[in-house]
Design the sequence.
């Protein structure tokens, strides 16, 4: 599909609207595809236009957008200078993705034309002018230890349970007591985690052991247990600033670089880390 440049023009409009909103105390609309009449009565088309009043003076601004794969040459700047000069009081800015040839920058400075690089952010943009890298991505690795599952639990009674002692209940209703430490079978499952898939059998001896069910206790010497273990669950997720960043903007005249966030906030890349 042929690149008409319209998509890039609208992208620049959206970025410029954010920048204007930051600087302006009044509502200013940045429009796309504006037609203005020059001093000779000719209709001239401009990609981006906005105007505002300051101190009673009306300021009119336009941006020429070029979605080129190579740096902008001096002849493109010359053509834009002529176009802007045909309309009194108009301030012109050039915007591209790929930067400018040295002659183009010199010509723009002579004629008061602003030069911007406006594009989607790239990995290398998260660096201050003094070379200090900024945090672009935070990666989180989490490991969840899964509890074991008790398959069989047989207490070793020191004496025959009374007729009214019933060994039944949910895992959170049956408790083991040993030397003052009390925990349910559910809590015991949490202690049986192991980073593997196995079925394990074990005989556990207890000092001063008791089994408590429904508020009734009976002395036990320990218990036989059979349980299954499961591998740990490992997951990774990240927070990437690129996903939250709309654009990279470089002002070639004022030597300033900025990242524009999706929420309208900015990151100044031209400051130093000190």
Sequence:
């Amino acid at each position: 599909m042929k690149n008409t440049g319209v998509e890039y023009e609208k992208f620049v409009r959206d970025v410029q609207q954010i920048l204007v909103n930051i600087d302006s105390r009044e509502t200013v609309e940045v429009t796309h595809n504006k037609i203005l009449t020059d001093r000779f009565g000719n209709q001239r088309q401009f990609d981006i236009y906005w105007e505002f009043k300051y101190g009673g003076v009306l300021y009119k601004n336009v941006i020429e957008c070029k979605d080129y794969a190579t740096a902008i040459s001096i002849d493109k700047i010359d053509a834009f200078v002529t176009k802007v000069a045909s309309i009194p009081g108009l301030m012109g800015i050039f915007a591209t993705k790929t930067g400018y040839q040295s002659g183009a920058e010199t010509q723009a400075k002579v004629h008061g034309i602003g030069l911007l690089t406006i594009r989607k952010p790239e990995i290398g943009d998260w660096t201050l002018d003094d070379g200090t890298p900024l945090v672009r991505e935070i990666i989180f690795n989490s490991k969840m230890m899964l509890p074991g599952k008790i398959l069989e639990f047989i207490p070793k009674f020191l004496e025959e349970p009374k007729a009214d002692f019933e060994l039944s209940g949910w895992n959170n209703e049956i408790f083991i007591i040993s030397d003052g430490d009390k925990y349910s079978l559910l809590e015991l499952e949490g202690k049986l985690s192991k980073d593997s898939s196995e079925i394990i059998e074990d005989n556990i001896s207890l000092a001063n052991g008791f089994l408590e069910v429904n508020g009734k206790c009976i002395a036990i010497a320990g218990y036989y247990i059979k349980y299954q273990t499961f591998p740990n669950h490992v997951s990774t997720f990240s927070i990437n600033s690129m996903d939250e960043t709309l654009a990279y903007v470089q002002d070639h005249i004022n030597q300033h670089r900025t990242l524009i966030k999706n929420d309208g906030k900015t990151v100044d890349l031209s400051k130093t880390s000190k």
